[in-house]
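Throughout this chapter, every protein is written as a compact record of paired, labelled lines. The reader may check this reading against the record printed directly beneath this paragraph:
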Amino acid sequence: MIRYLIALVLVAVGVAVGIAIRHYNFIPLEDKINIVDLATLLVTVFLAIYIPAFLDKQMQNSRYEKDVIIRKIEALQSSFKEVNKLVTECVQKSAVSQTNCHLIINSFTSISNELESVITLVEHCHAKKLDTELTELKTFRRDYKNLVTGGKFQQRNFKYTALTKKDEEIMYNKIDKAICMLIFKVNRL
């Protein structure tokens, strides 16, 4: 509604300026209309309206899509960080409690679901442009889960060794780096 009002005011101002110039003969005017000049004027007006109204809207929509994807990726990153904290807590306590065992397993379920959500969103919005990165992230998730929950993880008195914690930390850092790179690449799309 405001756009129409602004357009109407601009047309009225243009007509008023045209009438004012017509009454004052200081500026020589021709009675003939040059078709090329008229076409140039129409194209210029069209572009002046089209570029801000439509292209800006498309760019904003694309930005909103990227923001949603990035928020989902950041949530995924947070879930990996939670698993890392839980493993660190277990190493410090020299034991894996049943509560921590269930929290780690539930965290990996959440991670799998979040990763599938990210993959779905990326494929929906940006086709197959990030397939390599997403496949790498899926592989890292599988390897990280096997490292953290592998072996006799669910048995009583399971303990993480210092070597396992070191390997877990290396894998977590790879995942964190891959997620950060994915965020950068989504921003560049």
